[in-house]
Fold:
Amino acid sequence: MAVIFGINAVVEALKAGGRSFDYVAIMAGRRDARAQVIFEAARDAGVQVRQVSRDQLARLANTQSHQGVVAITSEKQYSDLDDLLVEKRGAHHFLLVLDGVEDPHNLGAIIRTADAAGADGVVIPERRAAGVTGTVTKASAGASEYMPIARVTNVNRTLEELKERNVWTIGLDERGDKSYDEVDYNMDCALVLGAEGAGLHEHVRRKCDFLISIPMLGRVPSLNVSVAAAIVMYEVVRQRRNPLSKPKKS
Structure:
């Protein structure tokens, strides 16, 4: 069983219907408006709600940052790469491939932005990378419950498969020879992001069709990976919403 916690995370998991629930635990005596949202979502999903102490919640969640609600559920159901390419939310596919993001807060923030930016799915490695845990679900504000996420054994092979299916692969790397806003994203594409600190692995970097970078004007050479991901994802959104204003390729 898995444990998810946090109000938005639990509510969205109940609404999404992608997990089976054992029960939802909420702090005894809580009757505020946000608690009512939990009760209503659980009632609509047919899930039992138990009222327990704050200490019991902390033990269940293994953290104090549970916001007064914890759910005992099945594990996140991961998708296959093929599943991510079956449907697209816009005229073109848009995927994220994460080459070893290890911080669950970063992964959650990226998934949350990917959902908001209309991405079709996120690819993460099976090893040496964060999976979808309770912390990730909370950091994503529940977006991980809706976003198709594929776990793959080899990111290099995944990039090859995407390219064979006419999906352009765009790596974000500080050595990129194009600024992120110089690429035309009105095509089926996958944005490839590296791990915190290390960036893209060399083999992954070489597999990408394009390498882009974000101009850095300060003394620190890079942004947090979730911030960098958000900047590029919303450039994709901007161009696809208003293709006539997209920058020309250099």
Observations:
- Residues 110 and 226 are 5 Å apart (CA to CA).
- The chain has a mean pLDDT of 94.
- The chain has nine helices and eleven strands.
- The first strand starts at residue 2 and ends at 5.
